[in-house]
Structures are given as structure tokens and as C-alpha cells.
Automatic annotation (TrEMBL):
It comes from Ricinus communis. Residues 271-450 form the Glycosyl transferase family domain. Keywords: Glycosyltransferase, Transferase. This is Glycosyltransferase, putative. GO terms for molecular function: glycosyltransferase activity. InterPro entries: Glyco_trans_1, Glyco_trans_4_5.
Length: 477
């Protein structure tokens, strides 16, 4: 069997919350108590480039000013106008997946400016779930109220709220199931935040109210165009006013990414837990393990890259593949397929499976290249991509979806086709970055600069603020 890391992640789901809490305590101590300069586990250097944005267009794309701006010591928060506003956030589920975590981040941003925030989860398991319990308590600790998705309290909150945010297309089922005859009163103040790129979400039962809400917020231009065309052609409905809002890295993640000592400590611990050396090259895919995320094709590419290196007798450090996001309970058949492939190709010592985790920073600090191999239409945006770029990592991504709006091919990474036809190109790209150290490091530095220019928390806050102002204006009229 391929190796499994257990440094920060437990093998048993009911221990996740404690391990997550333990890591956050450790990472906080590392970041805030150690601030001196030091060499990292990698040979890449720390960059302190500063870039600012002048303003943002209607679709949330930043207009970058070439001249640095002078800021006061305490810059105004673009979301300050949300102070004392009542905001209801409706999530289809509460889990460690991207959509719910993004909505939680918005909840904390709004709480930070004094908004009253209420969270409801539409789909919850009947049995107690430790992950849900932990995440709900995290929100309660930050002042976010957590209500039941059904009942009069949810209806009253929706009617009184200044703004209602539906998260993902599936959350649309909550409107009729809970509000019933009150739906029409609530729709004018609904902002629908859509993250999906999969065709099975295009069901009228989910999105029949979409044309009547105040607006839709989507994470990439590619996804927005896809929704516009599909809703018209397949469902015969029209999208509301649609805003594209690229995401941004949190301040906490950037603080770790820019602290060379913190990165070195995390790097050493992760590599030790994986059983790899400091000079080995780690290519990692960090996504929930599923066929749509392309872990199977990545492993085929990785094996092919090892064959190429052997055939061409290239002198490179030992290559390793790290698959972060494993969950045998959720994807048992697919996970067994991955492990069978690893065994058949006799690369158990080169492939490492790591359980699903909320804390990606340790792995970003310890790897050399991120592989974003999402298939079909790709990622709606792919938050892990900008997180990796913050850590000065080049990205090998599929030429699909939001990845193409993040990765500059040949500058911050290399793109390859989705599907089986992308296996050999990805293998070639792995070999390219393994054999060209300077190119790999330069791409990482370029990615970091791009993050500083476009993909920080204050960029995202500014983009979201423009959308919320417009939605609130429409709700009043």
C-alpha cells in the first residue's frame, strides 16, 4: 500500500475537529512567535513585492495601477457599509469542501465589520457529525448565529434580512421547501453565489427562481458564460444580473506563505512524516479525491514521467507524487482503483496518500509543484491554485475553467488538456519542471507576484463589496 501521512490528519473522522484545532494552535504559534529570516526547506527565495489595485470593473476584474499607492496605517474596509445589516447565509451543506468554506469566509468578513450574520445548512445528516459540529462551533465562536434550516425562525429571518445569500445551485431547493408562500417576498434581496461547473446541477427544481433574484455571483468568467448559455439553451430561463468575483487568499494563509521560518518548520515536519528527503521533488494534487478531480490521470502522468526520466537517463532528484484529499469512506471504489494502479506499477515508495484536511498550508510549504488536474470543464475557480501561487509554487493545470484565468501559461505554470489526451503532456511538463530548476523557481516567483496583484483577501472584499452594494440597492427598490 502507498504511504499515508498522519502528522496533522487522523485516520478516523471523529477525531478531525481536535486535530484541526491542534494545528491552528501550532500554526499560530509558529507564525506569530517566529519572525526572523531563514532559509526555507526549498531553494526558492522570499519575495516582498507590493502591488495595489485602483478599482474594479462590474465583473470584479481588478484594474492594476502600475504606480504604488500610499495607504494610511488603517485602510478603510470596503465592507464597512454592511455594519448592522442582517445577512442570512444559506448553505446546501456544511463540510470541508470549497463552497461551504467560502461561505464561512464571507460570514467572518461580514462579522468583522459588524454585520449580524445568520447561517443555516439545508442538508444535514440525521446522525451527529463531528466535522459539522466543529465548523458550527467555529462560527458560533466568531459571532455567527446558527439556525435550523426549517421552521418559523428561518422564515422570519429571511423576511427581516437585508440580504440573503444562497450558496451553490443546490441551495435553491431551500426556497420552496422552507419559505413556501413567502418566496416572492424574499427573492428581490437574494444574491445567488454559484460555484458549480457540472451539468447535473442544471435542474429546474434547483434554479427555477434564478431569473427573479437580485443577482448571481460566480467565481470565474468561464463559469458565468457557461451558466448563461446552459440556462438559456437547456432550461429556457434567463440569468439575472451576473457578477464575476475572483477569490482571494486569506490574510492567515498569506502570513504563513510569507514567513520563511514557518514554511521551513512545516516543510520539515511534513517531509519527515511522508518519509521523503529535503532534496526530493514533490508534485502534489490537493483536492477531494474523486474522478472529476483527476487523481487517476495525474498518477498515470506521474508514472509516465518516471519512465521518461529513466529512458532519457536524466539526472534529477527523486520524484514523488502526493495525493492530498483522500477519504476512503466517500470514494471507496475510486480510491481502491488508485491504490491498485500504484501497486501494479510498483511505485509505492514514490506515491503518498494524505487524508482530507482543512489545513493545506503545511503541504503547500513542503511541496515543489502543485498539479491542478480537474477534468471535464475544469474548476469554477480553484482556490488551491492561488494558495499554491502564494507559496511561490508553479502550477501544472488543465486548460479548462477558472484555472485559465489564474495560471499564465509559460509564466506562472504550464497548462495541459483535460481528459486522457492530457496524460502525456502533463508527464512532459512534470519532466520539464523537474529538469529545469531555474524555470521552476521563476514560475513560482511570477505566481506570487500575480497573487499580490490580484488574488488577496482585500481584492476579494472589494469585489464582493461592489456586488453587495448593488444587490442592496435593488432590494430597496
Amino acid at each position: 500500500m502507498a504511504k499515508q501521512s498522519s502528522a496533522w490528519i487522523t485516520k478516523h473522522k471523529n477525531r478531525w475537529p481536535l486535530m484541526i484545532l491542534a494545528f491552528f494552535t501550532l500554526s499560530t504559534l509558529i507564525v506569530f512567535s517566529i519572525r526572523s529570516a531563514s532559509d526555507s526547506c526549498h531553494s526558492s527565495s522570499n519575495i516582498t513585492t507590493t502591488a495595489t489595485t485602483a478599482n474594479v470593473d462590474r465583473f470584479g476584474e481588478p484594474k492594476v495601477d502600475s504606480k504604488p499607492q500610499i495607504h494610511s496605517s488603517v485602510a478603510p474596509n470596503p465592507l464597512d457599509f454592511m455594519k448592522s445589516k442582517l445577512v442570512l447565509l444559506v448553505s446546501h451543506e456544511l463540510s470541508l469542501s470549497g463552497g461551504p468554506l467560502l461561505l464561512m469566509e464571507l460570514a467572518f468578513l461580514l462579522r468583522g465589520v459588524g454585520a449580524e450574520v445568520v447561517w443555516i445548512t439545508n442538508q444535514k445528516p440525521t446522525e451527529t457529525d463531528e466535522v459539522i459540529y466543529s465548523l458550527e462551533n467555529k462560527m458560533l465562536d466568531r459571532g455567527v448565529q446558527v439556525f435550523s434550516a426549517k421552521g418559523q425562525k428561518a422564515i422570519d429571518t429571511a423576511l427581516k434580512a437585508d440580504l440573503v445569500v444562497l450558496n451553490t445551485a443546490v441551495a435553491g431547493k431551500w426556497l420552496d421547501a422552507t419559505l413556501k408562500e413567502s418566496v416572492q417576498q424574499v427573492l428581490p434581496k437574494v444574491l445567488w453565489w454559484i460555484h458549480e461547473m457540472r451539468g447535473h446541477y442544471f435542474k429546474l427544481e434547483y434554479v427555477k427562481h434564478l431569473p427573479f433574484v437580485a443577482g448571481a455571483m460566480i467565481d470565474s468568467h468561464t463559469t458565468a458564460e457557461y451558466w448563461k448559455n446552459r440556462t438559456r439553451e437547456r432550461l429556457g430561463i434567463k440569468m439575472p444580473e451576473t457578477y464575476v468575483v475572483h477569490l482571494g487568499n486569506s490574510k492567515d494563509l498569506m502570513e504563513v506563505a510569507e514567513d520563511s521560518v514557518a514554511k521551513r518548520v512545516l516543510c520539515e515536519h511534513v517531509r519527515e512524516s511522508l518519509g521523503v528527503r529535503n532534496d526530493d521533488l514533490l508534485f502534489a494534487i490537493i483536492n477531494s479525491v474523486s474522478r472529476g478531480k483527476g487523481q487517476d490521470l495525474f498518477l498515470r502522468s506521474f508514472y509516465e514521467s518516471l519512465q521518461l526520466i529513466q529512458e532519457k537517463k536524466l539526472k534529477v532528484p527523486s520524484l514523488h507524487a502526493v495525493v492530498v484529499g483522500s477519504d476512503m469512506n466517500a470514494q471507496t471504489k475510486f480510491e481502491m482503483e488508485l491504490r491498485k494502479f500504484v501497486q501494479e506499477k510498483k511505485i509505492q515508495d514514490r506515491v503518498h496518500f494524505v487524508n482530507k484536511t482543512l489545513t493545506v498550508a503545511p503541504y503547500l510549504a513542503s511541496i515543489d509543484v502543485l498539479v491542478q488536474n480537474s477534468q471535464a470543464r475544469g474548476e469554477c475557480f480553484g482556490r488551491i491554485t492561488i494558495e499554491a501561487m502564494a507559496f511561490q509554487l508553479p502550477v501544472l493545470g488543465t486548460a479548462a475553467g477558472g484555472t485559465m484565468e489564474i495560471v499564465v501559461n509559460g509564466t506562472t505554470g504550464l497548462l495541459h488538456p483535460a481528459g486522457k489526451e492530457g496524460v502525456t503532456p502533463l508527464a512532459n511538463n512534470i519532466v520539464k519542471l523537474a529538469t529545469h530548476v531555474e524555470r521552476r523557481l521563476t514560475m513560482g516567483k511570477n505566481g506570487y507576484k500575480r497573487v499580490k496583484e490580484r488574488f488577496l483577501e482585500h481584492h476579494m472584499s472589494h469585489r464582493i463589496a461592489l456586488v453587495l452594494k448593488e444587490v442592496l440597492r435593488k432590494a430597496k427598490t
